[in-house]
Each structure stands twice: as structure tokens, then as C-alpha cells.
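lol forgot to send this yesterday, sorry. C-alpha cells for the thing we talked abt
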């Protein structure tokens, strides 16, 4: 399996760039009759309440595009649904927290960010007393970075030699992050240095890793990769077919169909797909692979580490493409632009893609439950609960349970660590002896 996915970095980049263009493949008229949200609980789609091209601006845009050139890939659909300049979910909505459609670990408890600050300090100290560049990829509202910085400042860790960068595609979210970290309602200018209030930390926003400084770099990617577009394939009696998105002129809704001939991504992954014997659905994300290799390439050149956390698996899950609305799972096609859309991360694919870059090595994946316990979440929660009221203690324990319980994020959320090969120490949190 490892050798099957050994694509060259340049080839993968070319394939991804090409996939941004519209597929001209013809499709069958056979609708994919199973819901694309949970393979283990598959039911027939009930689309009666779905948005139509009459009620949803993005569905209308996509219907025009599909009528002109045919069905589009799920990857194309995800890009439009999340980042369309006019109707994209991330460009129009407050997506995080109780008012949004999902809550991330940093929004649950400050303890999470405090423990990740421990990981940052440990990794940096393992590489000597060098300037430190801390990069968060997909920073949400800036809550996680704010918690990390608070710990760094309290420990008087580094200061003028600490450079912070936020990788963010959404203008709306960059503004939210500025409010959290700068205390100002501004529209941050890409690749422009700002100063954190009451500190000497340098902060800037980037949209390309090439804009980073040439320092040891420590990446944190918490729930970044699950938002990257995927291509979805389904096994049929005639072989693997890519699942596409079509528009139904009768219902005026979007629907799933199968491509009748091989697509560009299908050609690239042909040998990999042929070798799969035990799955009916496969999700592939060239963009995740490219980003992973970009991260590893930077670490190879400048040193450092990366911590990647997300809902995911090690190559065993099949159909995870789904939407979220008001903290509930919905079909991804039901109301694009107004719901979050995601797919679980295949950590095996990330590790195999990253291993194309020399001079880096990997640890994990490890469950969030084990990772946070190894970092001392139980000890930190006990300290935080001291001298608190009974109600406050209950809130602290409830937050910890959501982070570590198998019924919540504990086992479904995984972590992978990438280190430069010069760092011979096992990363903190990834060893049972921590």
C-alpha cells in the first residue's frame, strides 16, 4: 500500500492544479442512491427538505455551471460550498462555537490550548535556543493561539525571538482572529507584521507557506485537513467510478451520480484503487497531500516540527463525506453555503505523502484521549478546579470529558507529529512514559 501511493511531489502538484479546472467527463444518469454521510448507517436519501436552485443562491450557481459543462467532482463542490466569494460557508458565516455549526477543542476548554503550549515549548527546547516561528494552519477564531500565547508569556518563553504566523484563507475569519489576538477590528493585510498587545511577539497572516521566515518552525494544524476537498470513488461491477455532483431539473436539487469514464484523479490513483479489496468507497484528497508535503519541505529546510490533529482514521474508513448544521450531521448536498462540509482525514495518506520528503520522520497517529493524558490533562484540570465553586468544577470536568471521552472526541480525534530527523527525542505526548 505504501508503494502504491508513492507519487512524486511535482506530479501530485500538477495533478492538483489540473483538478482545479472543470472536469469534462461524461456521466451516467444513475443516481447514487445511498447517502454520503455514514457508511455504517447507510439509508436512502430523504431529500424532500433540501434546498433548491430557487431557494439557495449557491445551488443556483452550481446548476448553471452543471447545465453548461456537466456534473462536477465532489472536490469542486466542496471548494464552492466552503469558499465561494459570494455564497461560501466560510465567507459568510460565524462557524465556530455555540452560535456556529460545530465546536472545536479550543472552544471547549482553555486546557487544550495550554497543553499544546507545552508541546510547543518541549519541541522548541529540543532543538536548542533558536528563534522560534509558531504557525497555526486554519486558526478558527484565534482562540487556540491566544491560549498558547498566554502560556508562553506566563512562562516568559522567548519573546522578541518568537514569530507567529496564521495561515487563513477566509477574510472573515482573519478579521475574527485579529479581534481575538490584536484586540482590534481590522482586516489584516497578508504578509504584514503586526505587534501583539503588551508583548514583543511578531504576528502576521499568510496564504502561502513561502511567506514564512527562515526559522525553526512549529506547525499546529487543528481541524485543518478535514476541510480540504476530497475526490470520492465507489466500487461498481464495472470497476471504480468517481462520484460526481449533478443537478436534477425536476427537483431542482443537487444529486450524486457516477462518472461513466475515468477522470484525471481516477487515472492518477488507478493502481491504488485496483489494489483495494475490502472497501466499497474511497476518499482521496490531493490537496491534503500537497499541503502535507509543503509542511514537510519547510521542516526539512528550516527545522522544527508539526502537530496535526483531526477527525480521522488510518486508511480503514470508507464514506465520511457529510455536512454539519447546528451541531447535527446532515447530508452535504442539503443546503450548500449554509452548512459546514467535511470528510475525515486519512492519516495514512498524510504520512505516506509526507514521507516523500526526506529528512523528516513521523510519530502516531495517537488518539486525542491518550495524547492529552500524556500531556497531563488530568493534573491540569485538578489544578484549575482548585478553589472553584461546585458549579465551576462541574464545568471544568464536563469540558475535560468532551475532550477525552470515547463518546465525544477522545478516540475519534487523532494526532500525527512530524519532526526533522535531527531531533532524536520522541515528541511529548506521543510516549506512554510522558
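and heres what i got for the seq, position by position
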Amino acid at each position: 500500500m505504501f508503494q502504491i501511493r508513492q507519487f512524486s511531489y511535482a506530479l501530485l502538484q500538477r495533478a492538483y492544479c489540473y483538478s482545479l479546472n472543470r472536469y469534462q467527463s461524461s456521466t451516467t444518469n444513475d443516481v447514487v442512491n445511498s447517502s454520503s454521510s455514514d457508511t455504517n448507517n447507510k439509508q436512502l436519501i430523504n431529500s424532500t427538505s433540501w434546498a433548491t436552485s430557487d431557494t439557495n443562491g449557491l445551488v443556483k450557481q452550481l446548476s448553471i455551471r452543471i447545465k453548461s459543462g456537466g456534473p462536477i467532482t465532489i472536490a469542486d463542490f466542496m471548494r464552492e460550498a466552503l469558499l465561494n466569494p459570494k455564497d461560501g460557508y466560510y465567507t459568510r458565516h460565524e462557524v465556530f462555537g455555540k452560535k456556529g455549526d460545530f465546536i472545536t477543542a479550543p472552544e471547549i476548554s482553555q486546557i487544550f490550548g495550554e497543553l499544546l503550549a507545552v508541546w510547543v515549548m518541549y519541541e522548541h527546547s529540543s532543538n536548542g535556543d533558536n528563534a522560534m516561528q509558531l504557525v497555526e494552519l486554519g486558526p478558527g477564531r484565534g482562540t487556540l493561539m491566544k491560549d498558547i500565547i498566554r502560556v508562553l508569556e506566563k512562562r516568559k518563553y522567548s519573546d522578541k525571538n518568537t514569530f507567529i504566523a496564521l495561515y487563513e484563507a477566509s477574510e472573515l475569519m482573519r478579521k475574527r482572529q485579529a479581534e481575538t489576538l490584536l484586540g482590534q477590528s481590522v482586516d489584516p493585510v497578508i504578509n504584514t507584521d503586526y505587534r501583539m498587545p503588551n508583548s514583543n511577539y511578531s504576528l502576521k497572516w499568510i496564504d502561502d507557506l513561502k511567506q514564512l521566515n527562515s526559522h525553526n518552525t512549529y506547525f499546529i494544524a487543528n481541524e485543518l485537513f478535514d476541510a480540504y476537498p476530497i475526490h470520492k470513488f465507489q466500487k461498481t461491477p464495472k470497476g471504480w467510478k468517481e462520484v460526481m455532483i449533478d443537478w436534477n431539473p425536476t427537483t431542482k436539487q443537487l444529486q450524486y451520480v457516477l462518472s461513466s469514464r475515468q477522470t484525471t484523479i481516477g487515472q492518477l490513483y488507478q493502481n491504488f484503487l485496483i489494489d483495494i479489496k475490502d472497501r466499497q468507497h474511497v476518499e482521496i484528497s490531493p490537496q491534503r497531500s500537497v499541503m502535507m508535503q509543503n509542511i514537510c519541505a519547510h521542516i526539512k529546510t528550516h527545522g522544527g516540527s508539526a502537530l496535526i490533529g483531526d477527525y480521522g482514521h488510518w486508511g480503514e474508513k470508507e464514506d465520511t463525506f457529510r455536512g454539519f448544521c447546528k451541531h447535527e450531521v446532515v447530508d452535504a448536498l442539503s443546503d450548500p453555503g449554509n452548512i459546514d462540509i467535511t470528510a475525515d482525514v486519512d492519516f495514512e495518506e498524510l504520512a505516506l505523502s509526507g514521507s516523500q520528503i526526506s529528512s523528516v520522520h513521523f510519530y502516531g497517529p495517537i488518539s486525542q484521549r491518550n495524547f492529552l493524558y500524556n500531556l497531563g490533562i488530568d493534573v491540569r484540570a485538578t489544578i484549575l478546579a482548585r478553589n472553584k465553586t461546585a458549579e465551576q468544577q462541574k464545568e471544568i470536568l464536563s469540558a475535560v470529558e468532551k475532550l477525552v471521552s470515547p463518546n465525544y472526541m477522545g478516540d475519534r480525534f487523532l494526532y500525527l507529529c512530524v519532526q526533522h530527523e535531527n531531533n532524536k527525542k520522541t515528541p511529548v505526548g506521543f510516549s506512554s512514559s510522558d
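The chain has 15 helices and 18 strands. anyway ping me if u want another try
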